[in-house]
């Protein structure tokens, strides 16, 4: 078993707890759905998803509990600056979205987040970001009919 830092073990446990909490909320909401007197009522799928979500959450909690005692304290250089920069990129996305449209702002969000998180192949980030944003725009705006901000260029 590889040595993990304490923050990774704690965040794994926190994420597992959130998944478990989400599973409980989904099950409670599913039990409130009206019964339709059929073998497969409307609550079957949400309960199945909640059970799987809860199982993964429990697995993450157990994994974090096993790794936490042996976890080393490690400082990540520049971690706080990256968090602040990511928040700034998200704020720029929210502020620029109505002005320049979804595709360009989503591309900027993808590229900015990838660079801040240390993505390899920096030369391809712009192409990947634009392709992903254009595909999402096409699916949601054109195929599904949920309008996304198109900006001055129509995309």
Automatic annotation (TrEMBL):
Keywords: Membrane, Transmembrane, Transmembrane helix. Residues 17-149 form the DUF1468 domain. The chain crosses the membrane at residues 12-31, 43-62, 83-116, 122-140. It holds the Pfam family TctB. Coiled coil: none annotated. This is DUF1468 domain-containing protein. It comes from Saccharopolyspora terrae.
């Amino acid at each position: 078993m590889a040595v993990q830092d304490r923050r990774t073990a704690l965040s794994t446990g926190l994420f597992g707890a959130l998944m478990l909490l989400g599973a409980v909320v989904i099950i409670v909401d599913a039990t409130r759905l009206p019964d339709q007197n059929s073998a497969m009522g409307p609550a079957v799928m949400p309960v199945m998803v909640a059970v799987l979500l809860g199982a993964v959450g429990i697995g993450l909690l157990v994994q974090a509990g096993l790794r936490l005692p042996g976890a080393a304290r490690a400082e990540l250089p520049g971690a706080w600056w990256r968090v602040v920069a990511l928040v700034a990129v998200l704020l720029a996305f929210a502020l620029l979205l109505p002005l320049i449209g979804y595709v360009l702002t989503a591309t900027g969000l993808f590229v900015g987040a990838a660079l801040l998180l240390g993505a390899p192949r920096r030369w391809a980030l712009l192409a990947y970001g634009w392709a992903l944003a254009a595909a999402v725009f096409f699916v949601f705006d054109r195929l599904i009919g949920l309008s996304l901000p198109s900006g001055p260029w129509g995309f």
